[in-house]
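Run log // design_07
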């Protein structure tokens, strides 16, 4: 990306004046030249930044894992890229002005070998998310499960699957995730998390001589979409397939987000049979330009479920469910003509610009006070 910005930059050097003429005599020409140059610079800054020119992008996906450390990456995207990711509507509106159909999601053919899936590891090594009942950071659970999901998807033929591990503080990392997915560009974005509960619902206990927090009242998975995603209909279609796969494998969904005890963490339940919820302002679901879904695989604040979520057997069950759902999803899209425009999201929920937000349970997690 930096190389592209440099290529777009116009170098202004000193220009020799004609012999025998004063600067005042050519002042008008210079001012015109400056206006032309200024307009050119402004226009160049509005050009889209291609993922193929973003040198940092390929490095993000390189496997540089080390025991006890997150994957190493190069410098974060530039401020220009972050602004572009934070305000995709501006780009959509420009395209729509010249082509009214440009902003409509298009149903494309799905070739598993070419279908680019970003598997996003929720949280970062610096901002670890929730802490489990036994003191293990959520980020570790997310990373292990996401790695297994990546392997299962590739084994199922989705060779373009990429694992996304982000560094830094929570909120800036949300923007970076969106930037990576949009610049790739990905065909699908799947974010992997593990659940907790608001602090007021936590109880204390001692584990290995340390005071820990737990809540055995709640358990289960949940699947999340944003009705402000530019392709909400497709996001919801996959969310339903994934939730049904989870249910078919003997898991139950978390019901607490419909209960009054959750206070302002309550969210609409779109399907009471499968456990698909909407959280419209979640940035990784709302700002991505492709269908996007967030999976809360289970509750790590529940002492029994934490042990299950940490087992290879449970990770294998969940990752197999994700792969099966993605295959169903891809098969259904393979029968869709690429030129058929999908219906836009309901106008009852228009896309709006809002500050980045974490998942509904994220702010309730013990470490969330600094976010």
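design_07 sequence
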């Amino acid at each position: 990306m930096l190389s592209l910005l440099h290529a777009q930059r116009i170098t202004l050097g000193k220009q020799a004046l004609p012999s025998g003429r004063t600067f005042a005599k050519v002042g008008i020409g210079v001012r015109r030249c400056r206006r032309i140059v200024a307009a050119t610079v402004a226009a160049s800054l509005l050009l889209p930044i291609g993922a193929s020119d973003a040198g940092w992008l390929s490095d993000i996906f390189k496997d540089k894992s080390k025991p006890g450390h997150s994957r190493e990456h190069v410098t974060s995207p530039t401020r220009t890229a972050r602004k572009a990711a934070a305000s995709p509507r501006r780009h959509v509106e420009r395209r729509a002005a010249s082509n009214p159909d440009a902003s409509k999601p298009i149903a494309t053919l799905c070739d598993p070998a070419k279908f680019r899936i970003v598997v996003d590891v929720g949280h970062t090594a610096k901002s670890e998310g929730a802490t489990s009942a036994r003191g293990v950071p959520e980020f570790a659970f997310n990373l292990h499960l996401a790695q297994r999901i990546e392997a299962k998807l590739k084994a199922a033929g989705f060779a373009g699957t990429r694992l996304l591990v982000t560094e830094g503080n929570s909120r800036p990392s949300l923007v970076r995730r969106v930037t990576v997915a949009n610049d790739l560009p990905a065909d699908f974005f799947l974010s992997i998390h593990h659940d907790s509960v608001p602090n007021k619902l936590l109880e204390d206990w001692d584990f290995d001589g340390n005071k820990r927090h737990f809540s055995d009242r709640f358990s289960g998975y949940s699947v999340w979409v944003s009705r402000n995603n530019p392709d909400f209909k497709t996001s919801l279609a996959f969310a339903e397939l994934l939730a049904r796969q989870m249910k078919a494998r003997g898991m139950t969904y978390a019901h607490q987000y419909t209960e009054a005890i959750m206070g302002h963490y309550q969210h609409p339940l779109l399907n009471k049979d499968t456990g698909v919820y909407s959280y419209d302002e979640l940035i990784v679901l709302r700002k991505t330009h492709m269908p996007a879904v967030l999976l809360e695989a289970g509750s790590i604040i529940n002492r029994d479920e934490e042990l299950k979520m940490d087992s290879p057997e449970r990770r294998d069950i969940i990752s197999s469910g994700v792969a099966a759902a993605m295959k169903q999803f891809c098969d259904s899209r393979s029968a869709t003509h690429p030129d058929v425009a999908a219906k836009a999201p309901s106008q009852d929920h228009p896309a709006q610009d809002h500050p980045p937000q974490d998942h509904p349970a994220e702010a309730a997690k013990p470490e969330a006070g600094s976010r």
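The chain is about 35% helix and 10% strand.
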